[in-house]
């Protein structure tokens, strides 16, 4: 008797109601099923008003409803991805298509709008009442969504490449800003001032990403090829990723039985890593990193890595993405390499992602599925979905006419949104079946109004 | 319109999720501990069988239940972990008979992805540590110290992501786990790891084994002297250790449960998904394993757990059928089975559908559920209250009292029924032909009302009238002696036992004597029944003329009365009568709301009898009608047997197949079900799907329609159409083809019941599965895949009817659950919560009116009223949303506002409007609308919509109860009821926990007083208001 995979949706629904399939297992399998069917959407269109390259995409995390996009023509737009503006009934037997036009646009004509390309637009994590934009005009603006007025403004020392806020934060409202300058700046919405600067990169900072397991940990990627981990409550970074520090697999190798009595050199490493998860008192991570030589004992542990010149990529780090479980970090570099890092051991996992060509001079926005089984990577004019642990290409999404810059995966709907230099925002979704043929009447049976 | 809801359990969970055996209540006690998802039961194994000792709720869904014995302890401790990452360690206090919390904590993490193959919690056999697998890639360790205390937990990274099972191995000098996992090519392997406590990491384990049976799913660790592990697959069972590898092929099956038989680990019981129990033997010579052998023993319920107790007694816990206590006999029976079923324990789970019907036309709903799965599928008829099965009845007016008498002291049966009227007494008797006929007892005075009768020693009978007490021979029926009341006096109340008669005229109640005298003055009648013993505890029950009952605990040596409680049993004077059922004492309270009073778990319980008004009652255990009662109603005397005494009475109709949908049709007096039958005899599992018609009294199958190959029944309703007087059953189906991921085809079948047969009248093919059907505006509304489609019933030229599509609405992911009210349609989506549609008659169109934008994965929906809609979702929560027609903007009007959130902790499959209880017009709760729900765990619950003032009052009561009642294991009720899914955790809102509120009635008096003081409401008033709520279910 060979094992049936039971991929059938109907059987899964039946097994869930009988308690044969755990409820959360059911939801996760349905999601995986839907992700395996991603294609250029046959039922949903986003009507982009942008006249420049799409640089940033984000859907709010509270309702999964509002998509925020930023473009090189200094414009920012918001769309309702759940409720279409119009619904076009298909002719000739085709299915209907819902069209989602922008709810509003802020551009150069706005008196407080940005003057040059907007590199980043992000929602305030708690609700959609505020959003934050960062621009090549050296400004970060915080906007009131309902009035489309700037409520706080931060002048930055150079072009803003990326800005980020922590989804976990309950204690701070900090915007982390990556700019042409070597310092990362933390902007406090509450006070309107810079709360902190983080020094260590030797060239401009391309990208920032907050940890998914601690509100205090920030990860930055620089033009110097370095990826640095910072605890924003302390000076200096506590970890620099070194591509030559490797492990094969998801965790450092298990100790052989013959090595049981061997002294471990992990104590200092463990001490340093207490900060990484922000809850060191409750949890003590285990690391297995070969010693790099004599430890510089005199330095404060948090300052150990300031002088570390290790690099994660032979080229600028152009994209960072923390996995949802907080255990791994993906990085993309201008060396056209994609790397998967074990956050706890700080090791390169040596997952060999198949050959990719990555843009070299702009930040890339990577996306992962909620279960982190797949990563979506802009690869010139296409988007490649890689299996996270084998590095194999799962699918290639072709539809853009020019380079893709941004990917956003909407967990609510298992939809992927991509934006590129062709000014398009494309929706990739599970195929929806074609609506019924007309049954002997000329009237359109499927009415929709909003 | 009300958004305030009261959620209460009418029937507790019955699905057994865990069980374990050990010495928990004392070193000499052998205990069986059972978990039913959110409750634990502790039983003691005694020569009489399983004795219940404790039954308590847990504020969490139990993920792990393990008994363990720390070093140096004489008794086992109990480890419980919940799905929301709480754990506790419980100990039994022998002196108080209570659970004590030894440890508690939270093992949630900020990193890691929650595992969806099921959480694992295990304890090292040498009690060095507890291991937990809660997140993919992480193994959490909670070490013990030398004194058995828990130390700080830490995580070890686990390479394997798809973990199927983890167990600790026996006999290892270091704690060692064995991990059964699946790789990314879907191959299955086992690997061992030692836990290095000092390094807080794994060390390579002693052995591993690759490429097991593809269905390997279960590990069984083997204790010394053999050690090693058994790996249970679908086609192979493997024994594996550092020294040996033995494999044995088995009949293809899915094994879900096992129980170890011997302390030396050489024999195991295995239970599979067909209910077959087998004995697995590890064949060995001394400590060397030489082979495996498996032997079928017989059939049980499909086991979810197996606990070997003692002396070949085994407890089989079940999720898909009733749980059982079985005996394994040495010799097979006539069918070759070694299994003898000694006891069955009801399991209603999983309830996948139900309907609410009034089968006996008594004005009270009965719930008929589709329960169970595979061969253990059944229908269950769930009725509140105790039914009387009439055997005989006589028309008699004006009955004032009734007593049963025997014809001799040694006769085990009653012969005479003495019926008293206002100015005469009549005798009914069973004659030699076992017929009830009027007769005479010459020694009795038949021209006056009898106040009391009783059997007396030495073959004698006693009759008490207002003027005399008469002693009569039961054999000759002649008067033997008589006592006359003194002139000017009369007897008012009398009672007796076999040897003496007591009369009283004036009675004083203890404590607050003046107050109670005042109370007594306002009542014309008082009836006293003293020294009534339930479960060895003595109570004094006092029935008052206004329909209230007082009960006190009675200390028989000191005469002290304590723990006074007052219960309303109606509005008319009550008469009390003791009777016995199944060797247990019960009291029948006859009034306008007849009730049986009994004790369960040392607690007095009240269960209503399904009769409108009973004036008198007495037990009548005759040879012709054993264990019967005689009941006097308005104008009628009835003799009948009584149902089992319990609050909810459950009648089980085994089907031998899995009923998935049910519907009742009043007009044809039938039920129709969609069911499936598994055919395990085939090489692979195959299913046959049917639509079956059942008689609504006998539940016999009277007609069957077989669906096509691969055609599965999805839904069934009874409905009629515009311009057609007939009533039809409509069935929605889906063609579930193996090569498709989702059905692309289904049918709607329209049946009429003609001459007791299902006749197919019409059929309509659909482009997807028909998940739901509703009668709607004289038409048929179908949920077909991602679409809502409206069909009208059209008369064709040839005189036949057909379903014709009128209009539809799509945009759903999958429209799984639909309810309608007027022109409004409420849709529960697979993953997009609730949307509200409206049908526009003039345009013949269906439009979306509003939607909830939360990504709720729905499992059931219901319309509470015109504006409030109720949903249940995949993470075991309930929520309500409200239509906002008055909103200022389109966006506001287009959004269903979430107005209530609550963690039920149960997976709800169906909501139905209805009530389990008779709606009494005089009752405060009679006007409260209720919805009944059914769950996977077999819970039947009620959700009631309360007026705001009542809600606010009860919310304060709930808040105070939280302070007074602590959850077992230190678990927090507030945290337990918080709405929780993968996106958020928020406080419960606009829902009250009726189970907690009604536990007020179980408190001792001092705790009641404490709450009474805090709320500034008297205890009597609080009891009254909470008692009223218990009448909702």
UniProtKB/TrEMBL annotation, chain A:
One of its GO terms (biological process) is transcription-coupled nucleotide-excision repair. Residues 268-298 are annotated as: Disordered. WD repeats lie at residues 47-89, 111-153, 198-240, 310-351, 397-429. Keywords: DNA damage, DNA repair, Repeat, WD repeat. The keyword DNA repair applies. SMART domains: WD40. Gene3D superfamilies: YVTN repeat-like/Quinoprotein amine dehydrogenase (2.130.10.10). PANTHER family: DNA EXCISION REPAIR PROTEIN ERCC-8 (PTHR46202:SF1). This is Uncharacterized protein. It comes from Glycine max.
UniProtKB/TrEMBL annotation, chain B:
One of its GO terms (molecular function) is nucleic acid binding. InterPro entries: Beta-prop_RSE1/DDB1/CPSF1_1st, Beta-prop_RSE1/DDB1/CPSF1_2nd, RSE1/DDB1/CFT1, RSE1/DDB1/CPSF1_C, WD40/YVTN_repeat-like_dom_sf, WD40_repeat_dom_sf. It is found in: Nucleus. Keywords: Nucleus, Phytochrome signaling pathway. Gene3D superfamilies: 1.10.150.910, YVTN repeat-like/Quinoprotein amine dehydrogenase. SUPFAM superfamilies: WD40 repeat-like. Residues 499-642 form the RSE1/DDB1/CPSF1 second beta-propeller domain. One of its GO terms (cellular component) is nucleus. GO terms for biological process: red, far-red light phototransduction. Residues 16-344 form the RSE1/DDB1/CPSF1 first beta-propeller domain. Residues 690-1002 form the RSE1/DDB1/CPSF1 C-terminal domain. PANTHER family: DNA REPAIR/RNA PROCESSING CPSF FAMILY. Belongs to the DDB1 family. This is DNA damage-binding protein 1. It comes from Glycine max (Soybean).
């Amino acid at each position: 008797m060979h094992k049936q995979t039971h991929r059938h949706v109907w059987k899964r629904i039946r097994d869930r109601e009988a308690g044969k399939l755990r409820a959360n297992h059911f939801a996760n399998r349905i999601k995986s099923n839907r992700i395996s069917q991603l294609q250029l959407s046959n039922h949903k269109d986003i009507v982009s008003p942008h006249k420049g390259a799409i640089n940033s995409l984000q859907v709010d995390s509270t309702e999964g409803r509002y998509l925020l996009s930023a473009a090189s023509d200094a414009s920012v737009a918001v769309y309702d991805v759940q409720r279409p503006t119009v619904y076009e009934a298909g002719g000739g037997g085709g299915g209907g298509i819902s069209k989602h036009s922008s709810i509003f646009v802020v551009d150069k004509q706005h008196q407080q709008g940005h003057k040059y390309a907007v590199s980043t637009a992000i929602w305030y994590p708690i609700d959609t009442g505020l959003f934050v934009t960062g621009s090549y005009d050296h400004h970060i603006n915080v906007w009131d969504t309902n009035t489309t007025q700037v409520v706080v403004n931060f002048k930055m020392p150079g072009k803003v490449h990326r800005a980020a806020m922590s989804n976990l934060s309950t204690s701070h409202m900090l915007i982390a800003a990556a700019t042409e300058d070597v310092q990362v700046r933390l902007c406090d919405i509450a006070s309107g001032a810079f709360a902190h600067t983080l020094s260590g990169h030797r060239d401009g900072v391309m990208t920032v990403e907050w940890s998914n397991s601690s509100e205090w940990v920030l990860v930055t990627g620089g033009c110097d090829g370095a990826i640095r981990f910072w605890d924003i409550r302390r000076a200096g970074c506590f970890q620099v990723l070194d591509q030559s520090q490797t492990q094969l697999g998801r965790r450092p190798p298990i100790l052989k039985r013959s090595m049981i009595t061997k002294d471990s050199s992990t104590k200092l490493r463990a001490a340093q890593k207490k900060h990484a998860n922000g809850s060191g008192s409750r949890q003590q991570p285990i690391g297995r990193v070969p010693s790099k030589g004599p430890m510089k004992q005199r330095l404060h542990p948090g300052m150990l890595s300031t002088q570390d010149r290790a690099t994660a990529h032979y080229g600028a780090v152009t994209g960072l993405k923390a996995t949802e479980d907080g255990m791994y970090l993906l990085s993309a570099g201008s060396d056209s390499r994609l790397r998967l890092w074990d956050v706890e051991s700080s090791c390169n996992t040596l997952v060999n992602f198949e050959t990719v060509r990555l843009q070299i001079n702009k930040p890339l926005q990577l996306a992962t599925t909620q279960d982190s089984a797949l990563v979506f990577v802009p690869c010139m004019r296409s988007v490649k979905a890689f299996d996270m642990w084998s590095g194999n290409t799962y699918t290639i999404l072709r539809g853009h006419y020019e380079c893709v810059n941004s990917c956003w995966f909407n967990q609510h709907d298992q939809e992927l949104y991509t934006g590129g230099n062709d000014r398009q925002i494309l929706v990739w979704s599970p195929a929806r079946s074609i609506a019924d043929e007309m049954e002997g009447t000329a009237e359109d049976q499927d009415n929709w109004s909003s | 319109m009300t958004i305030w809801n009261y959620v209460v359990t009418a029937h507790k969970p019955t699905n057994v999720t865990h069980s374990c055996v050990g010495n928990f209540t004392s070193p000499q006690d052998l205990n069986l501990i059972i978990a039913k998802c959110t409750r634990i039961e502790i039983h003691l194994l005694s020569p009489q069988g399983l004795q219940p000792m404790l039954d308590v709720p847990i504020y969490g869904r139990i993920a792990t239940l393990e008994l363990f014995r720390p070093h140096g302890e004489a008794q086992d401790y109990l480890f419980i972990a919940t799905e929301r990452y709480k754990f506790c360690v419980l100990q039994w206090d022998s002196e108080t008979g209570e659970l004590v919390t030894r440890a508690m904590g939270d093992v949630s993490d900020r990193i890691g992805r929650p595992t969806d193959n099921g959480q694992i919690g295990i304890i090292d056999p040498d009690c060095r540590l507890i291991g937990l697998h809660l997140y993919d890639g992480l193994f959490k360790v909670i070490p013990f110290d030398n004194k058995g205390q828990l130390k700080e937990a830490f995580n070890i990274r686990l390479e394997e992501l798809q973990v199927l099972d983890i167990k600790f191995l026996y006999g290892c000098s270091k704690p060692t786990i064995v991990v059964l996992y699946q790789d990314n090519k879907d191959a299955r392997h086992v690997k061992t790891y030692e836990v290095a406590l000092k390094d807080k990491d794994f060390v390579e384990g002693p052995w591993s084994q690759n490429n097991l049976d593809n269905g390997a799913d279960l590990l069984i660790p083997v204790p010394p002297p053999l050690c090693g592990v058994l790996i249970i697959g679908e086609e192979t069972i493997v024994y594996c250790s550092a020294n040996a590898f033995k494999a044995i092929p088995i009949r293809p099956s899915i094994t879900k449960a096992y129980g170890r038989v011997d302390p030396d680990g050489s024999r195991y019981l295995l239970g599979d998904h067909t209910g077959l129990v087998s004995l697995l033997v590890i064949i060995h010579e001394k400590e060397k394993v030489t082979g495996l052998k498996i032997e079928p023993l017989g059939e049980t319920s499909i086991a979810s757990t197996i606990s070997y107790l003692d002396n070949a007694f085994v407890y089989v816990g079940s999720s898909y059928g009733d749980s059982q206590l079985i005996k394994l006999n040495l010799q097979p029976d006539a069918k070759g089975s070694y299994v003898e079923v000694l006891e069955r324990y009801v399991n209603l789970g999983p309830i996948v559908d139900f309907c609410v019907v009034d089968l006996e036309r008594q004005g009270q709903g009965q719930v008929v559920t589709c329960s169970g799965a595979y061969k253990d599928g059944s229908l269950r008829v769930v009725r509140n209250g105790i039914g009387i099965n009439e055997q005989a009845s006589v028309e008699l007016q004006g009955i004032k009292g009734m007593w049963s008498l025997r014809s001799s002291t040694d006769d085990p049966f009653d012969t005479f029924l003495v019926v008293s009227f206002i100015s005469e007494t009549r005798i009914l008797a069973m004659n030699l032909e076992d017929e009830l006929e009027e007769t005479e007892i010459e020694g009795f005075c038949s021209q006056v009302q009898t106040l009391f009768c009783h059997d007396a020693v030495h073959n004698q009978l006693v009759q008490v009238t207002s003027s005399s007490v008469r002693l009569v021979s039961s054999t000759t029926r002649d008067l033997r002696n008589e006592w006359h009341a003194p002139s000017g006096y009369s007897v008012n109340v009398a009672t007796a036992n076999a040897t003496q008669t007591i009369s009283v005229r004036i009675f004083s109640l203890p404590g607050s004597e003046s107050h109670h005298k005042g109370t007594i003055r306002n009542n014309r009648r008082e009836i006293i029944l003293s020294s009534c013993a339930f479960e060895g505890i003595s109570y004094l029950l006092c029935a008052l003329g206004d329909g209230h009952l007082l009960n006190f605990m009675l200390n028989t040596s000191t005469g002290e009365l304590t723990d006074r409680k007052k219960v309303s049993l109606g509005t008319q004077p009550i008469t009390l009568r003791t009777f016995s059922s199944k060797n247990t004492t019960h009291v029948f309270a006859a009034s306008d709301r007849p009730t049986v009073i009994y004790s369960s778990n040392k607690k007095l319980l009240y269960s209503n009898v399904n009769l409108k008004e009973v004036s008198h009652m007495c037990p009548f255990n005759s040879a012709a009608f054993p264990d019967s009662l005689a009941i006097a109603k308005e104008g009628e005397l009835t003799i009948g047997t009584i149902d089992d005494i319990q609050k909810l009475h459950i009648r089980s109709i085994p089907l031998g197949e899995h009923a998935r949908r049910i519907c009742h049709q009043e007009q044809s007096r039938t039920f129709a079900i969609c069911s499936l039958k598994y055919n395990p005899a085939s090489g692979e599992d195959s299913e046959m799907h049917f639509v079956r018609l059942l008689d609504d009294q006998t539940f016999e199958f009277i007609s069957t329609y077989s669906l096509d190959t691969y055609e599965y029944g999805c839904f069934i309703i009874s409905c009629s159409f515009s311009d057609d007087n007939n009533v039809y059953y409509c069935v929605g189906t889906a063609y579930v083809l193996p090569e498709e991921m989702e059905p692309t085809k289904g049918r709607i079948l329209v049946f009429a019941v003609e001459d007791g047969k299902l006749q197919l009248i019409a059929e309509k093919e659909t482009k997807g599965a028909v998940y739901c059907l509703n009668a709607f505006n004289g038409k048929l509304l179908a949920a077909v895949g991602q679409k809502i489609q409206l069909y009208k019933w059209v008369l064709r030229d040839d005189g036949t009817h057909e379903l014709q599509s009128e209009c539809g609405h799509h945009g759903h992911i999958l429209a799984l659950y639909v309810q309608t009210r007027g022109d409004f349609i409420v849709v529960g989506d697979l993953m997009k919560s609730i949307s509200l549609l409206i049908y526009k008659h003039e345009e013949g169109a269906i439009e979306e009116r509003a939607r909830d934008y939360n990504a709720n994965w729905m499992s059931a929906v219901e319309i509470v009223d015109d504006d409030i809609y109720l949903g249940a979702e995949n993470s075991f929560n309930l929520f309500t949303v409200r239509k906002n027609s008055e909103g200022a903007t389109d966006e506001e009007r287009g959004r269903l506002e979430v107005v209530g959130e609550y963690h039920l902790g149960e997976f709800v499959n169906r909501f139905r409007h209805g009530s389990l209880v008779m709606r009494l017009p005089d009752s405060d709760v009679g006007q409260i609308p209720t919805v009944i729900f059914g769950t996977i765990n077999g819970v039947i619950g009620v959700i009631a919509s309360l007026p705001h003032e009542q809600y606010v009052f009860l919310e304060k009561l709930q808040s105070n109860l939280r302070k007074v009642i602590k959850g077992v294991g230190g678990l927090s009720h507030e945290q337990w009821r918080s709405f929780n899914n993968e996106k958020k955790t928020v406080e419960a809102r606009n829902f009250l926990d009726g189970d907690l509120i009604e536990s007020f009635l179980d408190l001792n008096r001092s705790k009641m007083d404490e709450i009474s003081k805090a709320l500034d409401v008297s205890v009597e008033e609080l009891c009254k208001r909470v008692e009223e709520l218990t009448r909702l279910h």
